[in-house]
């Protein structure tokens, strides 16, 4: 390993592939319509919200106009970006139609170019209310269509379930990014998730594509973390993104500060990893 430079071999990244330098995205001369991406995995605690927050902030840092949708009644994305989610219009009001214009629910964040539609515990009642609606799977798509032209990318932070809300998110999306934590049972449930995405592609949303799997909470010091990552690459090949997010307490710390890591600790390796993820997704064409 130490003499890779002398031997001329490319340095290998954690996914066992040569490290690619993804270029800094060129500035955009105009904005919109947005590409909509769901961050989705029905397994809890794998880094969906952390990835939504920090990918959104990284893309905004590259001059993209970003709207992050909190689509989890826990409201963790709203809290993590320091956005008020109580006594304000939320995504729940937009889904139920009590607020018609999504702009009434959009809040700006401290990050230039990053806006949020918040959620709170009300959203846990949405599935019950929507179950008898006409075209109940397409309600979020209809909401987002109204603001799509104002943004380059819309990221949806899904809740850990494959229920009607997540089906709405996937039906509204052009792409899906699946965060996978490098720990025991990482792959458990992923087959069901991919099957669900395939069904949605067949029945509701023919354009949806897999934008990639992002490995999170990777600890290079443990053999276990490396074994899990090797297995993910073996199963998913190029669908496993080259960027890997390391495990660090900086993430919980940044959540407490209600800031993305890219502003809380911009020089930290984890902030750089999310900047790289943004560049990789632009290089792959998942984001303009
Ligand atoms: N790379 C990381 N290193 C260390 N801790 C992390 C990392 N990513 C996320 N965390 C922490 O792990 C916990 C779960 O992360 P997160 O909330 O992003 O997952 P999630 O998939 O959105 O969870 P849920 O399914 O409950 O919505 C949080 O406390 C978060 O701060
Ligand atoms: Mg979450």
Automatic annotation (TrEMBL):
InterPro entries for the chain: AAA_dom (IPR025669), DNA_Partitioning_ATPase (IPR050678), P-loop_NTPase (IPR027417)
Region (Disordered): 1-25
CDD domains: ParAB_family
Annotated AAA domain residues: 35-209
Function in brief: May play a role in septum formation.
Family affiliation: Belongs to the ParA family.
Protein name from the UniProt record: Chromosome partitioning protein
Lineage: Bacteria, Bacillati, Actinomycetota, Actinomycetes, Micrococcales
């Amino acid at each position: 390993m130490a003499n890779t430079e002398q031997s001329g071999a490319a340095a290998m990244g954690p996914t066992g592939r040569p490290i690619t330098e993804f270029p800094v995205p060129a500035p955009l001369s105009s904005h919109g319509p947005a590409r909509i991406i769901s961050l989705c995995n029905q397994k809890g605690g794998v880094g969906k919200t952390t990835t939504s927050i920090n990918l959104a902030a990284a893309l905004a840092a590259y001059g993209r106009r970003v709207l992050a949708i909190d689509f989890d009644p826990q409201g963790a994305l709203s809290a993590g970006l320091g956005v008020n989610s109580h006594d304000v219009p939320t995504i729940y009001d937009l889904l139920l139609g009590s607020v018609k214009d999504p702009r009434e629910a959009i809040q700006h964040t401290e990050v230039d170019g990053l806006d949020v539609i918040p959620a709170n515990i009300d959203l846990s009642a949405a599935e019950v209310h929507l179950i008898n609606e006409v075209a109940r799977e397409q309600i979020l798509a209809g909401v987002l269509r109204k603001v799509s032209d104002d943004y380059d990318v819309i990221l949806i932070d899904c809740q850990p379930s494959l229920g009607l809300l997540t089906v709405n998110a996937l039906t509204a999306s052009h792409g899906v990014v699946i965060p996978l934590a490098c720990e025991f049972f990482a792959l458990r449930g992923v087959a069901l998730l991919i099957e669900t995405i395939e069904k949605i592609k067949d029945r509701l949303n023919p354009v949806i594509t897999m934008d990639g799997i992002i490995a999170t909470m990777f600890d290079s010091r443990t053999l276990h973390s490396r074994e899990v990552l090797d297995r993910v690459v073996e199963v998913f090949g190029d669908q496993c993104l080259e960027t890997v997010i390391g495990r660090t307490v900086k993430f919980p710390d940044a959540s407490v500060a209600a800031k993305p890591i890219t502003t809380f600790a911009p020089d930290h390796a984890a902030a750089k990893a999310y900047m790289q993820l943004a560049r990789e997704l632009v290089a792959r064409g998942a984001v303009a």
